Protein: Cysteine methyltransferase
Amino acid sequence: MNDEFRDAVYQIVAAIPAGKVSSYGAVARQAGFPRHARFVGRLMSQLPTGSRLPWHRVLRGDGHIALAGTPTGEVQIQRLLDENVPVTGGRVAKAYFVTWND
DNA sequence: GCCCTGACGGGTA
DNA sequence: GTACCCGCCAGGG
Structure:
C-alpha cells in the first residue's frame, strides 16, 4: 500500500478532537480509500506503543471497542474515559462520533 | 500465485 | 440485544 495512504490515515486520526471518536471505516473513507477499514486497523496494530497518535479515539463502526477484553483495549477505554468519553458496556454512544464536514 | 488471517462493516434471523 | 454470515482488501507464510 502507498505511504500516501498511511500518512493520510495518520493525519485523519490526529485530526480527531479530544472528547470525540471515529471508526476505522470512517477514517479510511476520509483518507480517500473506502473499504480499507481493515487496513486502518492493521496500521493501528503496527503502531509503536509510544506513538503520539490518538489511536484510542478510533473504534468500530457500531461504536464498540474493537480490543475490548485485551490489555490494549483496557488502556484505550481508560484513555477515552480520561477524555470525558463515556464507555458503557465496552461501547461508546454514536453521539460521540466526529461529524466530518463533507 | 494460493491460502489463511484480521484493531472492519453491513445485513439478516 | 445476540448470533451468524458474507463481502471487503492488503499482508505474510
About this structure: Residues 23-25, 28, 35-45, 55, 58-62, 65-67, 70, 72-73, 76 of chain A lie near DNA strand B (CB under 10 Å from a C1').
